[in-house]
Amino acid sequence: MSMAKQRRVAIVGTGSYLPERVLTNADLEKIVDTTDEWIRTRTGILERRLARGDEVTSDMAAAAASRALESAGIAPTEVDLILVATITPDMPFPSTACYVQDKIGATNAFCMDVSAACSGFIYAMESARAHILAGGVKTALVIGAEKLSSVMDWEDRATCVLFGDGAGAVVLRESTDGRGILSSFMGSDGSLSHLLNLPGGGSRYPASEQTLKDRLHCIKMTGNEVFKHAVRCMCDAGNRALDRCGLTEDDVRWIVPHQANLRIIQAIASRLGGSIERFIVNLDKVGNVSGASIPLALDEAVRDGRVKPGDKVLLVAFGGGFTWGAMLVEM
Ligand code: ACO
Asked: CA triplet 192, 85, 257: central angle to 5 degrees?
């Protein structure tokens, strides 16, 4: 079968949303025992955005989704599937995707959330692709959206300096010209779940006075352990995705990594992508926005003209679970 005849799924629109309020490293110096110098040199983050108290994950997701649909020239009623990757849903159920459906008027869609922490967006893209290729879905909206400020332990300096709020979205349709998702690779390792999680509020530790006292409703992370696995798994996933379509890193124009830490991105660059110049980096302005991180960075780079039609872009992510994945997309 020739390459042109292979059925593929393409990104036909992108959008994103960032809340207005900026929290700088100087602001954090007033909240916990930290310094701008430590945060900058250990993470590369200079500031992050915080949602308003009354602004929930589905509000940000809906704003990003509307922009993505607008850029694709597709009406909300044409959407058949909405997937929201998030670890900060509006509530445990119903899904945040159902709230998004209502907010944007996508009355013909079926809707669900995807739980894979910082890898959630790539996992959701892979799922939407499968639905489209299976034939039941023509147009899918894939959204990464997080209000991480709602699960932050503002007394834990090791985590509260890292995260931010925001949303990004893409519209997927079957490709008409051979461009689109060329390959992917996904992995998980549940035996390392304890290194990065949010323990409270589920069936293991239902909300109680004790879980509140133990701060179990906040993100817990063993940062330096996560760091090592993140570098190894993202490099491995990137290489395997390239192998699967017979390409090498030289064929890739841009790499959009999960934005957790500039040192992680530099380590990946030295092992995988060669030059850091080929990496789209926005964590200095937004911090780690978990599932929203990749679509936020991608939309920014599409809108400012860095990512152009025809560019091969490699998305790579790693997150709680552990979960990881890579996806090669011809835009
Ligand atoms: N300000 C000042 N000092 C701090 C701060 C802070 N904000 N946070 C930690 N420190 C201290 C620690 O207490 C420790 O002090 P000690 O040596 O006296 O014990 C020291 O700094 C070093 O701590 P480490 O945790 O070893 O620092 P490290 O260089 O590993 O950086 C970081 C920490 C930024 C968290 C890093 O490990 C990291 O980025 N990890 C990966 C994060 C990631 O990829 N997450 C995945 C996705 S997230 C998701 O799925 C939701």
From this structure: 70
Residue nearest to atom 35 of ligand 1 (CA): 223
- Among 122, 157, 177, give the residue marking a domain's end: 177
What atom of ligand 1 comes closest to residue 230's alpha carbon?
44
At residue 87 the predicted structure's pLDDT band, cuts being 50, 70 and 90, is very high
pLDDT (tens digit, 9 = 90+) per residue, 209-252? 999 999 999 999 999 999 999 999 999 999 999 999 999 999 99
CA torsion sign, 45 to 233 to 87 to 60? Answer: positive
**Full domain range(s) for residue 238:** 181-330
Q: Single out the residue in 146, 177, 208 at which a domain terminates.
A: 177
Q: Are 23 and 157 in a shared domain?
A: yes
Amino acid letter for position 288: N
Task: Give residue-wise pLDDT tens across range 246-275.
Answer: 999 999 999 999 999 999 999 999 998 678
Contacts of 103 (CB under 8 A, 6+ apart): 58, 59, 62
User: What's the total number of domains in the chain?
Assistant: 2
Which of the listed residues 38, 42, 148 should we mutate to test ligand 1's pocket, taking the one with most ligand atoms within 8 A of CB? 42
Longest dimension (CA), the chain: 62
Q: Looking at 111, 218, 233, 258, which residue is catalytic?
A: 258
